[in-house]
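Hey, resending since the last one bounced:
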Amino acid sequence: MTGGHELSRSGPDVTALVASWAGDLARLAALPLAGEELLHFLVRAASLVARAAAADPVDVDAARQVGASMVDAGLLAPDVLPITVSALARNLPTAARSAGADRPHETAPTVEAAVADGYVARLRARILDEQESMHRTEVAARRQMEGALRSSEARFRAIFANAGIGIGIVDMEGRIVDVNTAFASMLGYTVEEFRLLTVGDFVYADDAAQMWELYRDITEGRRDSARVEKRYRHREGHVVWTDLTASPIRDAHGVPVFIVVLVEDVTALRELRERLRRQALHDPLTLLPNRALFQDRLSAAFAQPGRRVGICHLDLDRFKAVNDRHGHEVGDALLIAVARLLDKWVATRGHLVARMGGDEFAILVDDPPEGELAMLADTVLAVLTEPIVIDEHRLVVSASIGVVEYAVEETTPTEILKAADVTLYWAKSDGRNRWVRFDPERHARDMTRYTLSATLLPGLERDEFQVEYQPIVGLSDDRAVGVEALVRWAHPTFGPLSPDQFIDLAEETGSIVQLGRHVLTSACERGAEWNTAHPGAGLFVSVNLAVRQAHDPDLVDDVTHALETTGLPPHLLQLELTESALLGPAGRPVEAIMALAGMGVRIAVDDFGTGYSNLGYLPRLPLHTLKLARMFIDGLHTPPADASPIVGGLIALAHALGLSVTAEGVETPAQADRLRASACDTAQGWLYGRPAPWHETARLLDTPLPPENRPAVLTPGRPQPGP
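The structure tokens again:
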């Protein structure tokens, strides 16, 4: 069939429109067009409508022409126009039916309205033509024309009265001229009752200006059609939301005399949208606002210049234990109970309380008065002290709270949320069941630690860690018997860093093992070079081991490899460990230390005397040396010194156990003399040399120390760089 070929060449929108349109029209009786002829007409009309809808802006004139052509084709049955409007609405995409407006709050003309307008205009013109023709004919012809006019009007009235969507006609003063049954019943009225009302009877106070502006735009010719979502007041008092399209009816001179409105009830659709929106912005368990709504309100607060914003970010302490012990149902019930408490004590003060996820909640305070955030944090901690009963469980709950407040000009929504997260972490790490206020200096220190931990391994790869050496001097002749290897970090951003600034981070991240290998290898290389160049010197190198290194399974292999590759004899390597690093589970010596001592490596206890030393472990460990902590040496600046009996006792104890003693932190000749008088074996400190690169330290090793060309006495109590 020819029509079939035309239909196959049309686009998918046209094909769907023709199929739907033809199917609906086929149910009507006595159509002037049928079968192949009707199909040809609908294909041409649908193609023209699709092109008009796709134009930007919408080709209103072409759409009106389609409506007019329907009248010309004789499609005047009562349901033709409603069927046509319905088919267009179902099958043309929304984006194709309406174009963007030129000004804010303006609605683009719709294809459906334009087709209906063209249909009504052509029908009216046709009726007027028929009336004019009646005046030019004889009385008999006039009577015949009057009959035709009545028939046309009856058909138009049938269309108007039986349409499935609401249709109303309003004059330019807002008086209701006529409405159909669908429109009247939509608002709970009969047609007769509705005709007695005016547009003003349905207008809400907050949308009146918009509606009258719409009427003015139409009456003054600034637009030919408009579409808005408008609410009406139902006769019983509730709100009916509608999708309203308004178009003018003009007189012979083009002046608008009436406005035709097409109204569709979209109340259910709007309620569905509102439910979906609420579900998207509220937590389904606690019914509190969720993170998305919290962030929306936070952004809105930051849009107000000159104001301040405060956040209390709280997390329930040990909530995981509740889930693990009592199950997730009890945990969920606990979250609901906490949410109700927060809503009762906080939200009622006008502040937004949101569940951020898991057991985290946040309170947003817009422009808080002085002390408001502290009061809120104290209130939350106080109300949570009361046990919460869930079924038969009596749960004791506490919370950690991070408090942060900023002027909106000083930060951003993202940054203030980060600060709240950081402060919450501080509250937990400081002991829980407390609130902590954001401290920029503490945050800066934390960020520095984070940066250092992230750049430790890359720094090793870039050879940023330098090993320096400090002489260890025999007190009998003031000559160096060994050197201690001390690592320094030449950081590209923060400059030179001493070990106390990064060793703990290296242990936390596990980088201490790689760093320790680097220091061990460098120290063994220097020691081997010196002893090869000075046969019989017997200079040992001392290297610090951290706790994680001592328990690393590869420690023995690492030390063996370093000794074999450098050629340093094992007895010229000393490993310094703290008491905690020397002992394993149940107070037993670490097996690796026992193995290294068996190889001949010297083992020294570093910082002996700090903490609560257990003297009972000393005979059970393969030790060579005790290194006295500098706090004992600091008391030996001038005689008499309270520390002298303690130092003497420790030295005597070590000698009784067959151990040598090294004093750390020696800064003055008086300290050295008192140590010598107490029979201390060796010493190190600024008196003999500060940590320095190997080539500088090596120049001191052949001469008695301290060198005669520099002052021997340094400021007492001045801190010495850590190992």
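The chain has a mean pLDDT of 83.

Sorry for the duplicate.
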